[in-house]
């Protein structure tokens, strides 16, 4: 198969779909890999590193899309990239379609086969291709939140860990999944007071056991969220409904009861955000204020540490890339129900139920769409 890795063009996005080691694996299996020039420069990988691994370097994205049968990216294709998709393309990347009507419309119109990293599953029902970026984003959320709390950035001027004689910041983590767990690890390590809210008793028991009582665990409800927001310095939104728009758990009305200069970090922003006042920002302009509350809503947080993020992502995506290349997209998905769960759009059909529901499309089951195409 001919596989293409274009350079990412989203604002301040320096990750890349394939590292040289992944290219080597693909070429060793007899596949041709086409990489856009300087695609890996943001992670310290030059064109020469890709050439050594067996890749062909092409001068621009249109040439990559023209040559390739499968496009491997990191972030959702931007409008100019979507215009280059063909019906015979397989696109393998993060998509986050539920809050993105324009992207979904373009992917449907393209006729391409579009597989989303974030809805591929494993035998335990987890999301293995989302997990490493959730780990990175969870850890970064505390770094970003601590920065936002500085007075120069609009924050209240509170040091996350405090100092002897001065109490530390209160960090409220909404959602005890991968983002929430990693955020909690970082916050506890920095000496903050941490409250974790989740609706799973099993998750709360796990946090209690792992952190030996250093974290306050709270069953999540509207009342509990409202109560803990009142005294929060930093709030991390880490809720996830796979493939669907995130629920709005913090409303505009909640902000009035929060301390001025408190910080909201919305890690769910890729799925539309879990705060009512959230809208996507970039690493170039990461924050904005609403009612004296700092909002950090960067939609590609792991892009801030692209080298770590890219290698972590390739560790989990490569087996699926190999399967798609070795068997062809259709057979690879029919052979693996977990990869099939990643199919969101195929030949003009929306094949992920939550995306179809949220955006008003007719839903066609992924297996059925493959068989009738």
**Radius of gyration based on Cα positions:** 21 Å
Q: Name the assembly state.
A: single chain
| Strand adjacency order, main sheet | 3-2-1-4-5-6-14-15
Report the mean per-residue pLDDT as an integer. Answer: 96
CATH superfamily of the largest domain: NAD(P)-binding Rossmann-like Domain
Name of the top-level CATH class of the largest domain:
Alpha Beta
**Sequence stretches where pLDDT stays below 50 over 5 or more residues:** none
- Tally of strands: 15
Count of runs of 4 or more consecutive helical residues: 15
DSSP helix fraction: 25-40%
Helices and strands: which structural class? alpha/beta
Identify the overall geometry.
Answer: globular
- Written as H for each helix and E for each strand, in order along the chain, the element string is EHEHEHEHEHEHEHEHEHEHEEEHHHEEHH
Alpha-carbon distance between the termini? 20 Å
Q: Would you give the CATH topology of the largest domain?
A: Rossmann fold
Query: Approximately what portion of the residues adopt beta-strand conformation?
Result: 15-25%
- Biggest sheet descriptor: 8 strands, mixed
